[in-house]
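In the lab's daily routine, each protein ends up as an entry in a very long ledger. A line of letters takes care of the sequence, but it says nothing directly about the fold. The three-dimensional part falls to structure tokens, numbers that each stand for a local backbone shape. The outcome of that step, for a single protein, is printed below.
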Amino acid sequence: MEMVIWAMTTAKRIFESKMLSEKYGVLGKVAGRYIKAGYSIRGVDLEERSFIAARRGEKLLVKVIWNVNKIDDSMLDELKNKAKTLNAKPLLIVYGAKPRVSAIRSIIDSIKAREISFRRIKP
């Protein structure tokens, strides 16, 4: 007999997601997506624009950027070192509709070279 697990967002998680987006803005919207996906969120830091998401033994240090021009080598190295001290995987999220991925290909290549995961979230 095969066991089927249904992944469904509960009302509690939807409520938590809405409260985070109201309280923290863009950072809360991104954290809310991870809550809906089953992660638990802790350590939301507005100064660093980052949080820690954990689920089933997987730990992510998520940093949210909404201005691609602010991505530089020192910021990427700092993210990698901070994730290493927390024993987490570094994840850089670019929030926004612009610029297109083809325009920032060199930045994406430098992110991947440092073994940092990269995602884009469009509003």
Summary: The chain has a mean pLDDT of 89. The chain has four helices and five strands. The radius of gyration is 15 Å.
